[in-house]
């Protein structure tokens, strides 16, 4: 492979590692600067701090092109494109914490001929501030659109590449466009502020779509419709599309909650009340709690009950626990007097730090031992293959709430388990306390769900 322009990356987190490794895959020599010495040492040994499918293989294949260091001087010695991939978590006020970005800019200084390429998600206006404070440094906004679990593919097969710059930094924008050219994706050339807004607006729109279908699911619960059929019929309309129309426990992770809140705060700080986003955020928070009423519908009180959570990560193929529905569910269950046991094939280590009172089971089947209810929280593929008849035998009360509408309802029902989902008709076993046809029981459950949503 022909050697291509060297690249510098600041930050060896999830975005930084994927960005650096994929650029190495494209033939670039990449210097990655990380401030934590222990992380640098681990990466030099080939040990990754994150779980991302396909990434270990790419790092092993491109090891000679990747350099990990704690020294800024190594980053500045060669590459002219410096990609900033540091975290910008929300502060207590909801605004983005830009301290890591500011530190990187200060350490880079203002060397002529270098361009700072912002991959980190930042508020609109960040680029203007940096260009004002460091006029000798060319600036390009190039937001990332990576999804955890498919980040390598998303980088190498992007829908689009956004490149935002000002006229005086056109050479830097041209250079960024050139490094992405082999991917064959559409290039959106725009100004810096528009590029920054594209990232926030994209995630906020997708979050809105998820909250909308969850609201439809809640109405389906009321009227007896099946949200999976509704979503299928909606998604065939090309103006709507089928993606992000999966009803469930709501969205989580490092992007949608943070970026949606960031856009709402940005609008508020500018004097505009973004009413739609306020509703999107509220719906998402309430959605995680509606499961409680579904449990009480069958179990009455949860005091002394044992509830198993299948999956803890916010989505499959990642160990990320940020804004995971499992965190809210575990806290609500324990708050109502239940004991919680859980299993996740990847995220257990991270989950232990956040859920110290939750018992971690060594397998999905063992998590169901003696359980009064099981909640499917994360749609890990292996849960489809569970022996549900064996699950029914192990459980104290064979009740399952499918929080992702992921399982085959008939397969679960035929195993003797009462099946509840999100926006789908429930399927009860012959011995269940609440039969599907019992209108009074359904009315009572509906009232409980409304009360739970208001808490």
For the termini, the CA-CA separation is: 59 Å
Structural category: alpha/beta
- CATH third-level topology of the largest domain: Rossmann fold
Biggest sheet strand line-up: 3-2-1-4-5-6
> Which blocks of ≥5 consecutive residues have pLDDT under 50?
429-455
Mean pLDDT equals 91
CATH superfamily placement of the largest domain: NAD(P)-binding Rossmann-like Domain
Q: Nutshell version of this structure?
A:
With 455 residues, the protein is of the alpha/beta class. It has helices at 14-25, 37-44, 55-61, 72-76, 99-108, 126-133, 151-156, 170-180, 192-223, 227-235, 256-269, 275-287, 290-299, 325-335, 348-354, 364-367, 388-394, 409-414, 439-453, and strands at 4-10, 28-33, 66-69, 81-84, 115-118, 138-141, 161-164, 187-190, 306-310, 339-343, 359-360, 373-376, 399-402, 418-420.
Outline the secondary-structure elements.
Elements: E1 4-10, H1 14-25, E2 28-33, H2 37-44, H3 55-61, E3 66-69, H4 72-76, E4 81-84, H5 99-108, E5 115-118, H6 126-133, E6 138-141, H7 151-156, E7 161-164, H8 170-180, E8 187-190, H9 192-223, H10 227-235, H11 256-269, H12 275-287, H13 290-299, E9 306-310, H14 325-335, E10 339-343, H15 348-354, E11 359-360, H16 364-367, E12 373-376, H17 388-394, E13 399-402, H18 409-414, E14 418-420, H19 439-453
Helix pairs in contact: 1-3, 9-11, 9-12, 11-12, 13-19
């Amino acid at each position: 492979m022909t050697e291509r322009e060297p690249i510098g990356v600041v930050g060896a987190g999830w975005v930084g590692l994927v960005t650096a490794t994929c650029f190495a895959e494209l033939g670039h020599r990449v210097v990655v600067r990380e401030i934590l010495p222990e992380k640098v040492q681990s990466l030099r040994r080939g040990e990754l701090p994150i779980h991302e499918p396909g990434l270990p293989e790419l790092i092993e294949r491109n090891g000679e092109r990747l350099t990990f260091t704690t020294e800024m001087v190594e980053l500045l010695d060669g590459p002219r494109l410096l990609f900033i991939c540091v975290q910008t978590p929300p502060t207590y006020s909801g605004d983005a914490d830009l301290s890591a970005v500011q530190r990187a800019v200060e350490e880079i200084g203002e060397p002529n001929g270098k361009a700072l390429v912002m991959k980190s998600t930042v508020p609109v206006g960040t680029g203007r501030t940096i260009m004002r404070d460091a006029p000798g440094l060319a600036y390009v906004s190039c937001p990332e659109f990576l999804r955890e679990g498919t980040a390598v593919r998303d980088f190498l097969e992007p829908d689009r590449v956004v490149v935002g710059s000002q006229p005086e930094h056109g050479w830097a924008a041209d250079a960024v466009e050139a490094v992405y050219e082999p991917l064959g994706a559409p290039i959106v050339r725009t100004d810096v502020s528009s590029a920054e807004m594209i990232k926030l607006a994209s995630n906020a729109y997708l979050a809105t779509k998820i909250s909308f279908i969850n609201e439809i699911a809640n109405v389906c619960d009321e009227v007896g419709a099946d949200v999976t059929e509704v979503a299928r019929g909606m998604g065939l309309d090309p103006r709507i599309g089928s993606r992000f129309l999966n009803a469930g426990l709501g969205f989580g992770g490092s992007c949608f909650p943070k970026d949606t809140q960031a856009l709402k705060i940005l609008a508020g700080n500018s004097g505009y009340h973004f009413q739609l986003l306020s509703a999107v955020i509220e719906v998402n928070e309430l959605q995680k709690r509606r499961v409680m009423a579904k449990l009480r519908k069958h179990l009455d009180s949860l005091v002394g009950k044992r509830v198993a959570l299948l999956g803890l990560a916010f989505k499959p193929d990642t160990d990320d626990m940020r804004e995971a529905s499992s965190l809210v569910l575990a806290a609500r269950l324990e708050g109502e007097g239940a004991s919680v046991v859980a299993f996740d094939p990847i995220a257990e280590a991270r989950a232990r730090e956040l859920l110290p009172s939750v018992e971690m089971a060594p397998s999905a089947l063992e998590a169901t031992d003696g359980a009064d209810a099981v909640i499917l929280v994360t749609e890990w593929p292996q849960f489809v293959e569970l022996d549900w008849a064996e699950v029914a035998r192990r459980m104290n009360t064979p009740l399952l709430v499918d929080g992702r509408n992921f399982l085959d309802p008939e397969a679960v029902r035929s195993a003797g388990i009462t099946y509840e989902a999100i926006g789908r008709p429930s399927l009860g076993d012959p011995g269940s306390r609440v039969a599907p046809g019992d209108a009074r029981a359904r009315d009572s459950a509906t009232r409980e769900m409304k009360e739970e949503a208001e808490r």
